[in-house]
Amino acid sequence: MAATIKDVARACGVHVSTVSRTFSAPHLVNPATRSRVLAAADDLGYRPNRAARALTTGRTYNMGLIVADIANPFFPPLIKAAQAQARGRDYHVFVADTDEDPRVEEELIRTLTKQVDGVLLCSPRLSNRMIERLAEDVPFVVVNRRIKGMPAVLMNVAQGAKLALDHLAGLGHRKIALVSGPIGSWTSNEMQGVAAETPGLDLVFFGPNQPTETGGLAVAADVAACGATAVLAYNDLVALGLIEGLAAMEIGVPDQISVVGFDDILPGRLNRPKLTTVAMPAVAAGRMAVDLLLQSGGEGATVTLDTALIVRESTGRAQK
Amino acid sequence: MAATIKDVARACGVHVSTVSRTFSAPHLVNPATRSRVLAAADDLGYRPNRAARALTTGRTYNMGLIVADIANPFFPPLIKAAQAQARGRDYHVFVADTDEDPRVEEELIRTLTKQVDGVLLCSPRLSNRMIERLAEDVPFVVVNRRIKGMPAVLMNVAQGAKLALDHLAGLGHRKIALVSGPIGSWTSNEMQGVAAETPGLDLVFFGPNQPTETGGLAVAADVAACGATAVLAYNDLVALGLIEGLAAMEIGVPDQISVVGFDDILPGRLNRPKLTTVAMPAVAAGRMAVDLLLQSGGEGATVTLDTALIVRESTGRAQK
DNA sequence: ACCTGGATGGCAACCGGTTGCAAGAACCTT
DNA sequence: AAGGTTCTTGCAACCGGTTGCCATCCAGGT
């Protein structure tokens, strides 16, 4: 059994409250007593029980981080950045993955509720209404979704999509396929919105799709058949799957079809052809989300981070 | 403020203990009373506070999962498998990343200690002694490391390395470079052990290295210079970095040098050339680790899972 | 010598639940 | 109808800490 505050108190003949103060309000205890307590604590290997402490103070010094799919290489850098930032603030981050399932997401939030001081909700799949309801029980910072009155870290997807479309248009592409993501994705809606209001483009929408390589693979045939000369994909995984699928049909990228992804993940950089993509500031987003949570405690500041187009090898001039 | 057990008790004129039993021992309370309590609880949006419950019962229904680097694509499938398995057992998994830093790893374990019922330690970087000491405070299951008397899930790295070396030998390779991983990696030691006792091979060791693309990139020049015709890399990321580095020096894979990785991660499958690699049963390992933790509660069963060689395009005949 | 006030540390209530014990009620037995 | 079971529920202690309040002690001021 691990030593408790009582064991320490007994060991150095002092009341538990004194031991408690030694750790949580050192200035209230006599230096001599304090060092006796510290020595005894060290001797017994005592460590304050954070859960018990949280019960009275209401602060756990933990935060949750919920992502749709940890296997998507987009998330790990964001997660690491958040953990590093939190560590610097004396906080710890618990990560959980929802498997893209809104029910799991809700359950996870409920579980987390009293064990953390707040939750970073990344690319949620729940409805805005549900998120607002859950926000009554635990402070949120939402990443990649705009919800009124709720602190959020947004990446400027619209701007990125615009850059990508302009790039494609500049290469002579007119008919462009838009391969969107899953239902409930704010990012997907943003992309579609921008595309729809860009003049002079002939758009074909495909969706909803799984936001993974598999999703891209599955939609490849349809995209090839629709006659578009370029594709804007929901994310890099979808783009990679798509390229894989097109290759299987002997359709060359970028010779016959140009492909642009989103996120700038590692496999996209290693791929042949190297993927042209819109880079998302995942690291900055992870850091900001932590800061926002600790500062605001739930009040509604919104931060929007810029994105950038990275032109590599998967886009080229439209063929006649 | 979230509703507590007292609010519910007051709302339906019953003692708190009855409310408590309604949730944790329903058979002990009269069906009529129970439904009244449930109705009131539902009405108030009451949810038991898991942290408070854990204080008395000693069970949190949480487990920790600590990995060295969440950005390594090897881990996410393992993590997802563990989370899914845990969910089926009514448990939740909190994931944390140590950034390959033993100090962070230790700190993380200490933080987790009283908030979880056990910890899955994946590819730890701490010393065996330290892990044994920490195990006094919280049950562990170790993945990818053998520690006497401690439950473990091992992947048969030795067997995989043997398969890979035989494969290379069969292709006529004699001088083989072994690019190992970080200090403290059991996997790395296993590989080296097998290689050293395989007769008829001329081995060159390189290490320690960062277990990432960067690590592979950094060692590429030395590997090229040593005259080996084949490389066995610590993992796929290292292998990919290595191939990238060799390509930059105009050294073709597999024409001039063959490369075998470990793990079978997604980017390896998408790479050109597609990576020959030893597949690790990450999903099975995640599941097993959870089961082991819940069954054993710390007793020392060890499970070893087989690995398999997947020959793709990054290995070929040795050139004269 | 007396008063004042700050420093120190004990006391006990409290955080949100759980659980052993016992009392009262309802139901059987014979 | 007396005695014994089985249910159902309240009581209160407890899990490991925190914290407001109060008593004591000691030093300084006058």
TrEMBL record, chains A, B:
<dbReference type="InterPro" id="IPR000843">
    <property type="entry name" value="HTH_LacI"/>
</dbReference>
<dbReference type="GO" id="GO:0003700">
    <property type="term" value="F:DNA-binding transcription factor activity"/>
</dbReference>
<dbReference type="InterPro" id="IPR028082">
    <property type="entry name" value="Peripla_BP_I"/>
</dbReference>
<keyword id="KW-0804">Transcription</keyword>
<dbReference type="Pfam" id="PF13377">
    <property type="entry name" value="Peripla_BP_3"/>
</dbReference>
<keyword id="KW-0238">DNA-binding</keyword>
<protein>
    <submittedName>
        <fullName>Transcriptional regulator, LacI family</fullName>
    </submittedName>
</protein>
<keyword id="KW-0805">Transcription regulation</keyword>
<dbReference type="InterPro" id="IPR010982">
    <property type="entry name" value="Lambda_DNA-bd_dom_sf"/>
</dbReference>
<dbReference type="InterPro" id="IPR046335">
    <property type="entry name" value="LacI/GalR-like_sensor"/>
</dbReference>
<dbReference type="GO" id="GO:0000976">
    <property type="term" value="F:transcription cis-regulatory region binding"/>
</dbReference>
<dbReference type="Pfam" id="PF00356">
    <property type="entry name" value="LacI"/>
</dbReference>
<feature type="domain" description="HTH lacI-type">
    <location>
        <begin position="3"/>
        <end position="57"/>
    </location>
</feature>
